[in-house]
Amino acid sequence: MTFTVQNREEIAVTIEKDAIFFRNAVKTYATKISMGLLYQTKIITAASEIVRNLLKYGGGGKAMIETVTDGRKVGIRLTFKDSGPGIPDLDKAMSDGFSTGKSLGLGLPGAKRLVDQFDIRSTVGVGTTVTLLKWK
Amino acid sequence: MSTIQALQSNSKLITEKWLLLQASEEGDFADAQTEEQKAEAAELVTSLVKSLTENSIDDPDSDAFSKVKENVGILSLSRARQGYSPRETATFILRLKEAMLEVLSSEITDAKQLYADSLKISKILDNIMINSFESFIKGREDIIMRQTDEITEISTPVIRVWDGVLALPIIGTLDSSRTQVVMESLLQQIVESESSIAILDISGVPAVDTLVAQHLIKTVSATRLMGAECIISGIRPEIAQTIVHLGIDLSGIITKATLASALRTSFDMLRYDVVKKSERKLATGA
Ligand SMILES: Nc1ncnc2c1ncn2[C@@H]1O[C@H](COP(=O)(O)OP(=O)(O)OP(=O)(O)O)[C@@H](O)[C@H]1O
Ligand SMILES: [Mg+2]
């Protein structure tokens, strides 16, 4: 499916404060397309999970916010890129309760449940890219 | 005369010109320059011209200027703290450049030499200015960091809402350092006030993700270890749905939609009855 990008912003994420700044930026974008409060909360929470993985496991990276449309619907697309160690077993990482960081292990699978489209690509030794899309 | 000699033998004149240029900038506050500022300026000029050598004049990054840069840095930092504007701080160094070039133009007669050396001096001062700017920004950033810490402190008050009942309204993002502050002040207040119930109100928390949830769970566990019960209130509908989709299990924790219903639950737990006056009369048959 092809989307048209209407608006775009890239934010470097290297410390926890960047993550808060990024989350607020997502809120601004979501408000601009008058996304409802429930969907806003869902995409912000999903973003929060992925951006924290990027910090904790990926050693920091970049996060991009876009307003996209497929011609009928408008939505927010978020892309997260890090050049960290990568994920050796994606199926495992995507399952509830799997964590190498002594955490709940709900970040990736939870984020997937909160958005309309979820894409994760990871290569060991190269890095991880996660894309989230939520329609208004 | 060589450029270096010209500048070194005229350091007093450069200082005077510099102070004059700064004073004209400040307009009505021309006499506001203190003896201390004058001494500061003289010292800076002296150390700058002293660091000029046949080698360093061609290399703005030379270590010879590190002492000058350090001093300018300290000055810019203190200016940032005192609330000077970036323009004022930049102008400060720009005027020094002006003063030096002016002196140079009256001392060096050969046009070619004057041009070449003016360029060199400009480059050195531009470099110093970039340094000063970095220090200035750093000074501002330090202020922001400190304010962030202060906000974290003041935004986590513990309120005694009833005998034995504490309430903690949490506003903003519940990150790791914040949780630490919340937990510490809560546990301390539980001991001090001998409270048996603590209400954590998250109405002001924008989103509950797995990390925030974990922080909440930890705070509840710590409260229970102290022999008190912890209720989480202010869970908005959209937050409740998001928590469910994330898959976080909060079933072991008492949660309420509002602070009012959490308070009601506390009264139940403490075996208090809240009744209207008229109803009490009816109940006692008076
Ligand atoms: N960007 C990344 N780079 C490398 N490994 C990652 C990355 N993101 C996730 N992982 C791996 O995938 C696992 C699962 O991630 P997930 O977010 O689901 O759980 P978690 O971060 O461990 O815990 P939680 O998010 O619940 O606090 C992580 O423990 C980690 O090993
Ligand atoms: Mg995670």
* Quantity of strands of chain B, as a count: 5
Percent of residues in helices of chain A comes to 25-40%
Count interface residues per chain for the largest interface: A-B, 25 and 21 residues
Strand count, sense and closure of the main sheet of chain B? 5 strands, mixed
Uncertain ranges of chain B: none
Cα-based radius of gyration of chain B, to the nearest Å: 33 Å
Number of strands of chain A: 5
- What integer is the average pLDDT of chain A? 94
How many individual helices of chain A?
A: 4
Largest sheet of chain A: 5 strands, antiparallel
Structural class of chain B: alpha/beta
Give the helices and strands of chain A as they follow along the chain.
EHHEEHHEE
Q: CA-to-CA gap between the ends of chain A?
A: 17 Å
Q: If strands are numbered along the chain, what order do they take across the biggest sheet of chain B?
A: 1-2-3-4-5
Proportion of residues in β-strands of chain A: 25-35%
CATH fold-level assignment of chain A? Heat Shock Protein 90
Topology summary:
The complex is a heterodimer of chains A (136) and B (286).
Chain A: E1 4-13, H1 16-32, H2 37-56, E2 61-69, E3 74-82, H3 90-93, H4 107-114, E4 117-123, E5 127-135
Antiparallel strand pairs in A: 1-2, 2-3, 3-5, 4-5
Chain B: H1 3-9, H2 11-26, H3 35-50, H4 66-81, H5 86-107, H6 111-154, E1 159-162, E2 165-171, H7 176-193, E3 197-204, H8 210-225, E4 229-233, H9 237-246, E5 254-255, H10 259-269, H11 277-284
The structure holds adenosine-5'-triphosphate (ATP) and magnesium ion.
